[in-house]
Amino acid sequence: MGDGVTSAEFEARLKAAADATETMLDGLLHRAPLPGETARPPRFLEAVRYSSLGGGKRLRPFLLIETARLFGIEGDGVARAAAAVEMIHCYSLVHDDLPALDNDDLRRGRPTTHRAYDEATAILVGDALLTYAFDVTSDPATDPDPAVRIELVQALARAAGLGGMIGGQVLDLEAETASEPHKAEFVIQLQAMKTGALLSYSVNAGAILGRADGPARAALAKYGQALGAAFQVADDILDVEADEAALGKRAGKDADRNKATLVAALGLEGARERRDRLAAAAIAALDLAPNREAAEILKEAARFVAIRKS
């Protein structure tokens, strides 16, 4: 780890963000209906909770929480925004695992939602989490300023939607049937959409909640984009190098399905070099961010992304 933050300090902050997100998700996914709702079906709510609670590093919430903290913003509102982005992430995993897409049986070391329940339930779980994320983000309890909430909602929709995560998933599916080798430029665009957009949003959302000025927003945007790209390259490498027990999901599936990865496009060593360059670029971007001492934890996140084993 770096000089500014020790490994133990980083792991403690990552766990604290995960715990805060878990607590908030647990509270939001309760049985009692909200005003305007009629009822929350018990078995279905159980499936939603199964898909959302008790797993994952919660990196996206961590990035949102720690970016907001750069500007002195903490508390339940930030935790709500963090829980919302995690709902989007969890929904994407539930749908990604379906037979029509990646057809995976294992996620986070346990059966995927469609295996634990059924396909129809898994589709609806994803739909519910996606919808609820915007409910939570738009609620005054997340931020009292309607302009802030509107900006969050629009940024989240664009990161998760047609020109972001979903568009990237479409390109990912199309790539599986390609007869020609995937070019690096195409893979980079795909990954910026499918994975990078939501990670970048998490940083952006913290800046929005923190009322960051233009220069700070620009520096954090560069950080979020580089970190999101590094994360996905690292994921490509892990699919080749890590075993199933460490990943908590099936390993080696990318090559089997002709997935568009930077390991395939650049080779394993080329992918490692790109991952490390991107992590360094993310760290350098934070030299222009406010409160450089507090930003050390975000620098450590970039190092973590590059060296993670799962």
UniProtKB/TrEMBL annotation:
Gene Ontology, cellular component aspect: cytoplasm
Required co-factors: Mg(2+)
Keywords: Isoprene biosynthesis, Magnesium, Metal-binding, Transferase
GO molecular function: metal ion binding; prenyltransferase activity
Pfam families to which the protein is assigned, alphabetical: polyprenyl_synt
NCBIfam families documented for this protein: FPPsyn
The protein's name in its UniProt record: Probable farnesyl diphosphate synthase
The species this protein was found in: Methylocapsa palsarum
